[in-house]
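> example.struct
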């Protein structure tokens, strides 16, 4: 292994900090704004559309800035993490502080929350993905980094479980707010450590030459449009982003609506709330464990085949659950657990194909330094709108069957609404899985070695 222990620890620290706040944000923001702030559907849709547009602007913009400028906070990946970390942690807290009760204020609150969150999420995510690519080009190192990061992120996975128990499923919102502050502070400390010690192999080469300035050799002479066209002309990149876009649809649906659906389809009399809290918190941990334990499969079959098999499972599991029906709550819980774990575990492997695409781009265009951020940023440009479209689609369907009327606690869900929820839970992964399997089959980039020894 060519990656230093300090490099591994730094990358893992950033991964834990990122996981702590991102999993909690995605899990709670929809429920908080729907069930606590009672946002109107109009404002919810406006916020999601605005969020989608901002996504289309900031991903390639920030990617180009990181790859093509030498500002104080973009000179190296390490400095991007160092300066972005505290702002990222603060953006996590914005949704949990109410601004007011009027529909307009609540709507503006959601818009501002999503804008601030996505700005920092994008900048930090691009820096971390580029760090992963540039710590080493060796397949062995990248698989090892993925494993270590997944092991470390187990520490970040219980943030949802912690929030569930301290707030009693948001019944004690003040306790929820206090816990989010603690989580944000811990996340910032981890980003600080990573920002002080995360040196890529390109940084280390310059440090060995005793250069005072270890800023990266940026591609200053290439325009944003030229780099973007080069990336978009890659058929492997297109195959990957189509797969990733639909993965985002599925992942966003599970993150935002699993709790909402379970609250309606599974009564406390059948499965207690304490068991469900443990269940919600265990999802992130188990998906991480799957990646760790699945390392031998990556060594034997490659990430390409493992990811493709996960889509076969997703389709078959959805069909089986739909045939079983929603009157078997324990089967439904098991299905949701396995579906979420499969989605999370597969997503945990996506850095590897993108890193290979970035390496291929560097070789093809004979660059001194890979445009890692541009590759990851262009991917995000296409795929991140899925995280807005998915909740818009789901909320529109649920509200058409009366979900918005459940704000009145005296009203219970109708059988039609419950059936629609169950149908969505089953057919969402079926349809998405079929599309993903098809698009992923066109991906052709492979690592340098057929077998990866861990």
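> example.seq
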């Amino acid at each position: 292994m060519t990656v230093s222990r300090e490099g591994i620890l730094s990358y893992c620290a950033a991964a834990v900090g990122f996981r702590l706040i991102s999993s909690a944000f995605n899990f709670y923001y929809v429920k908080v704004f729907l069930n606590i702030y009672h946002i109107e559907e109009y404002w919810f849709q406006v916020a999601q559309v605005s969020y989608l547009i901002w996504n289309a602007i900031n991903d390639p913009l920030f990617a180009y800035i990181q790859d093509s400028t030498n500002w104080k906070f973009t000179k190296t990946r390490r400095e991007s993490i160092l300066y972005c970390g505290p702002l990222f942690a603060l953006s996590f807290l914005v949704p949990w502080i109410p601004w007011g009760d009027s529909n307009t204020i609540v709507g503006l609150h959601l818009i501002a929350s999503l804008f601030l969150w996505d700005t920092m999420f994008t900048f930090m995510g691009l820096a971390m993905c580029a760090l992963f690519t540039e710590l080493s080009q060796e397949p062995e190192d990248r698989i090892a980094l993925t494993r270590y990061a997944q092991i470390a992120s187990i520490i970040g996975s219980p943030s949802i479980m912690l929030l569930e128990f301290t707030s009693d499923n948001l019944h004690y919102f003040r306790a929820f707010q206090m816990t989010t502050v603690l989580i944000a502070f811990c996340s910032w400390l981890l980003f600080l450590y990573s920002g002080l010690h995360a040196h890529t192999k390109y940084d280390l080469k310059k440090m060995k030459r005793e250069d005072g300035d270890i800023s990266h050799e940026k591609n200053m002479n290439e325009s944003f449009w030229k780099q973007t066209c080069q990336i978009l002309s890659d058929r492997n990149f297109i195959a990957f982003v189509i797969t990733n876009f639909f993965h985002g649809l599925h992942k966003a649906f599970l993150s935002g609506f699993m709790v909402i659906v379970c609250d309606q389809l599974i009564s406390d009399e059948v499965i207690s709330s304490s068991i469900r809290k443990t269940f919600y918190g265990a999802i992130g941990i188990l998906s991480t464990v799957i990646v760790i334990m699945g390392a031998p499969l990556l060594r034997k079959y490659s990430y390409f085949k493992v990811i493709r098999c996960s889509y076969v499972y997703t389709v078959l599991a959805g069909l089986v659950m739909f045939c079983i029906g929603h009157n078997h709550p324990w089967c439904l819980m098991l299905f949701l657990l396995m579906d979420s774990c499969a989605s999370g575990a597969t997503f945990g492997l996506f850095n590897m194909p993108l890193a290979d695409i970035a390496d291929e781009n560097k070789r093809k265009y004979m660059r001194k330094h890979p445009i890692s951020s541009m590759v990851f940023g262009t991917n995000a440009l296409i795929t991140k709108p899925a995280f807005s479209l998915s909740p818009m689609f789901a909320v529109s369907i649920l509200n058409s069957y009366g979900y918005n009327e459940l704000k009145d606690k005296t009203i219970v869900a109708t059988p039609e609404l419950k059936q629609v929820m169950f149908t969505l839970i089953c057919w969402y992964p079926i349809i998405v899985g079929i599309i993903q399997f098809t698009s992923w089959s066109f991906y052709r980039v492979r690592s340098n070695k057929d077998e990866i020894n861990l």
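> remarks
Residues 448-454 have pLDDT under 50 and may be disordered.
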